[in-house]
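Re: that backbone. C-alpha cells:
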C-alpha cells in the first residue's frame, strides 16, 4: 500500500517522460479550463450577446474536441500497426505519438485566432473556429500522451498516469484564477498570444524529442518498458 501510494510521486521525481509530458498535459488542461471559464466573458463582453446565446459557443469547443477525438480514436491503432509493420513487426510506444504532431500545432493556431479575432471584433464565427481548432489540438495531444504513457510504463501505467493527472488537476484549478487579471492587463490578443507561445515552447519539441530519443530514455528508466 505504501509503495502504491508513493510510486506516482517517485515516478514524477525520477522519470523525464512523466516530467515533460506531465508538465505539457498540465498546461493543456489549464488552457482547457481557461477556455471553459472565459468563453462567456468574450461573447457577452465583446459581442454583447445574452447569457443564453453566449453559452452556445461551447458547441465550438465540443465540435473540435469530439471531432478530433473520434478521428484519432479510429486511426491511432491503424497508424500503430502500420509503423509496427515497417519496423519489422516490433512495436514501440513512440508509434502512439503521430497525432501529437498536428495537435501541438493546432493549439497555438487556435489560441491566436481566438484572441485576435475577438479583440478585433470580427464575426463571431471566427473566434469559434479558433476555439474548435484549439479544442482539436488539446484532445489530440491528450490522447497521444495517455496512450504513450500506458505503453511505456505498462505494469506501472496507473502510477504514471496518477502523477500526470495530479499535476494537470492543479493546473486546471490555477489557470482560471489568473485568467481575468491576464486578459485585463494584456487584452485578448496578447493574452492568447502568450498562451500560444508557451504552448509552442513546451509542446512542439515534446513529440520530436520522444520520437527521436524515446527508446534511449526508456532504456535508462527503472519503471519503463525497454
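Recovered sequence:
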Amino acid at each position: 500500500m505504501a509503495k502504491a501510494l508513493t510510486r506516482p510521486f517517485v515516478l514524477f521525481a525520477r522519470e523525464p517522460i512523466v516530467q515533460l509530458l506531465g508538465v505539457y498535459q498540465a498546461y493543456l488542461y489549464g488552457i482547457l479550463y481557461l477556455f471553459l471559464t472565459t468563453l462567456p466573458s468574450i461573447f457577452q463582453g465583446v459581442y454583447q450577446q445574452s447569457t443564453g446565446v453566449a453559452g452556445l459557443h461551447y458547441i465550438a469547443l465540443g465540435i473540435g474536441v469530439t471531432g478530433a477525438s473520434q478521428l484519432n480514436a479510429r486511426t491511432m491503432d491503424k497508424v500503430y500497426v502500420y509503423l509496427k509493420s515497417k519496423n519489422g513487426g516490433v512495436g514501440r510506444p513512440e508509434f502512439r505519438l503521430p497525432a501529437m504532431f498536428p495537435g501541438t500545432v493546432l493549439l497555438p493556431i487556435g489560441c491566436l485566432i481566438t484572441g485576435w479575432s475577438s479583440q478585433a471584433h470580427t464575426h463571431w464565427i471566427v473566434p469559434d473556429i479558433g476555439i474548435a481548432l484549439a479544442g482539436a489540438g488539446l484532445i489530440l495531444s491528450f490522447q497521444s500522451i495517455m496512450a504513450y504513457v500506458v505503453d511505456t510504463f505498462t505494469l506501472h501505467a496507473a502510477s504514471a498516469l496518477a502523477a500526470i493527472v495530479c499535476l494537470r488537476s492543479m493546473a486546471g484549478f490555477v489557470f482560471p484564477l489568473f485568467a481575468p487579471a491576464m486578459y485585463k492587463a494584456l487584452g485578448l490578443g496578447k493574452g492568447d498570444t502568450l498562451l500560444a507561445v508557451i504552448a509552442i515552447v513546451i509542446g512542439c519539441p515534446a513529440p520530436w524529442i520522444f520520437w527521436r530519443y524515446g527508446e534511449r530514455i526508456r532504456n535508462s528508466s527503472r519503471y519503463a518498458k525497454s
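The chain has a mean pLDDT of 91. Helices lie at 2-14, 16-46, 51-55, 58-86, 100-119, 125-153, 157-203, 205-219.
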